[in-house]
Amino acid sequence: MEKIEKYSFTVEPFHVDFTGHLFLGVLGNHLLNAAGRHSHNRGWGIDQLNEVHYTWVLSRLSIELDEMPAQYEHVEVETWVESVMKLFTERNFLIRNADDGRIYGYARSIWAMIDVKTRQPSNLLELKDGDILRYVMPPDEKPCPIDKHGRIRLTTPTHLRDIDTYYSDVDINGHINSVKYIEHILDLFPRTAYERHRIRRFEIAYKLESYLGDTLSLYGEPSTETLTEATDAQPCRYQIEIRKHVGAEAKPAGETVVQALVIWE
Amino acid sequence: MEKIEKYSFTVEPFHVDFTGHLFLGVLGNHLLNAAGRHSHNRGWGIDQLNEVHYTWVLSRLSIELDEMPAQYEHVEVETWVESVMKLFTERNFLIRNADDGRIYGYARSIWAMIDVKTRQPSNLLELKDGDILRYVMPPDEKPCPIDKHGRIRLTTPTHLRDIDTYYSDVDINGHINSVKYIEHILDLFPRTAYERHRIRRFEIAYKLESYLGDTLSLYGEPSTETLTEATDAQPCRYQIEIRKHVGAEAKPAGETVVQALVIWE
Which residue of B13, B168, B194 is in closest CB contact with A167? Predict the structure, then answer.
């Protein structure tokens, strides 16, 4: 079995933003599909693992692009496992144009395997007698030339928006869908940001699950409204944090569900 | 050239709701993709028509299903043109399981062709010397055994929710995306509705465009909260209307953007 899995898609008309480029959340969805297929074809798919009461949990996702695929372009994703530790595995992605081969960019992700009953992380090196190690491609074999995930830490966050969560926000487990968080974060930036700039790098850290009916409070540092004043000479880094409020819980308390970093150029 | 176009997809993990079934909005997206491909392969695609300053506008979409496809199922959509009138064309869809052939249901849609510059409808019978008539399959040749679109008319609507529109809501034309309206409408129903019932038929009428930054006011008749009290013996019909508010315009004024009918069982 090859260590790399290829996954192809076409950029559909309803998946592009007003600039004609693929929504980052939809790209994230395709990356997660590619990951799911890679795992499945090697006996490590969620459907196969559920039988033994384990499931994959996405912890970090970082995407860095020189260019975002445009409407009707044919895209090919390669995904592979860069490393496996006891409690985490690193999975990388290469995103290229399927017709001319030019590389749009790369992505990195970190996953844990948890026991569905106890919600505790499992030892990846012990599951299936270390079978996962057969698929590892270290950086010297298959490079992924973007930075690893950084540390996200907001010191003086500004409260930006509260959103309620509904039916369309949740996945089959009743959790707010990983891709929906990306949408909600990108919706914090004004129209003019997308007209004048582009997102070079997007990082997201999934800390805790939230559920249908939770209220999500979104915080930013600095406030996302400032982006339109930025100049091209000044790269703009925005840290975002999402906290959840359950039921009638007092605000502004709330646990951190998701943190993100958005770098514009 | 065949009159029917086939379009296949697999129900992806991130495209199912908490019951494990495909989101209706995602199904709508696939139907629109199937329509786009059918048109394109016959020289009537939006990309081809833009060169001559025409584009398709979706006016009505009605979906009726005995069963909603579930996660990982393979789905095949057939689409064809049932009729062409001067200003409208009717396009139908059959939705089936690609493995065992069972039919999930059908859909109907109505489209107009408009001149991009004047925004006026064009005469479909005159464009390209009536070429479109070559693809018509009347009902006796290819039946679509669900009702045509009904009339939606709210007499004593209840105001349910106001929503702001953001970056992720709009398409390449800067209009609120047809699929996003479906999501916003389905989000009006409580979790228990989806736990106890299923949507048998969904109709939507696109009346007017709305744009990034517009506030949308959603109205229902009856109020969608009543659904959880319904019994299985009583089919539940909900009419929904979305009106838009532009800038500081006084509420509750606002033009009707979308109307919908949701029938539960």
Answer: B194
CA distance A86 to A43: 19
Mutate to test the interface with B, among A9, A37, A163, A167 (most CBs of B within 10 A): A167
pLDDT of A113 reads 92
- Residues on chain A touching B23 (C-beta within 8 angstroms): 168
* DSSP three-state, residue B188: coil
Mutate to test the interface with B, among A8, A10, A14 (most CBs of B within 10 A): A14
Contact between chains at A47 and B179 (C-beta distance less than 8 A) = no
Between helix A178-186 and helix A24-41 the angle, nearest 10°, is: 160
B143 part of a folded domain: no
**Interface predicted TM-score (ipTM):** 0.92
Domain ranges, residue B9: 5-135
Contact B119, B175 (CB under 8 A): no
**CATH number for A13:** 3.10.129.10
In a domain, A148, yes or no: no
pLDDT at residue B251 greater than cutoff 60: no
Q: CA-to-CA distance for B172 and A69, rounded, in angstroms?
A: 14
SS (H, E, C) chain A: CCCCEEEEEECCHHHECCCCEECHHHHHHHHHHHHHHHHHHCCCCHHHHHCCCEEEEEEEEEEEECCCCECCCEEEEEEEEEEECCCCEEEEEEEEECCCCCEEEEEEEEEEEEECCCCCECCCCCHHHHHHHHHECCCCCCCCCCCCCCCCCCCCCEEEEEEECCHHHECCCCEECHHHHHHHHHCCCCHHHHHHCCEEEEEEEECCCCECCCEEEEEEECCHHHHHHCCCCCCEEEEEEEEEECCCCCCCCCEEEEEEEEEEC
Q: What is the residue whose two structure tokens read 């408009």?
A: B114
Low-confidence ranges of chain A (pLDDT < 70): 50-51, 225-235, 247-253
Q: What is the structure's pLDDT at B247?
A: 63
Cβ contacts below 8 Å, chain A against chain B, sum to: 94
Are the Cβ atoms of A16 and B172 closer than 8 angstroms? yes
**Residue B35 in 3-state DSSP?**
helix
Alpha carbon distance B89, A78 (integer Å): 41
Q: Nearest-CA neighbor of B112 among B99, B100, B127, B102? A: B127
Entry pTM: 0.92
pLDDT value of position A21: 98
Same domain membership, residue B101 and residue B15: yes
Tokens standing for B182?
Answer: 């479906």
Identify the bridge partners of residue B239 per DSSP, sorted by sequence position: B221, B261
B15 lies in the same domain as B128: yes
pLDDT at position A247, please?
A: 63
Residue B112 shares a structural domain with residue B192:
no
- Using a CB–CB cutoff of 8 Å, tell me whether A211 touches chain B: no
How does pLDDT run across B28-74, given as a tens digit for each residue? 999 999 999 999 999 888 777 766 788 899 999 999 999 999 999 99
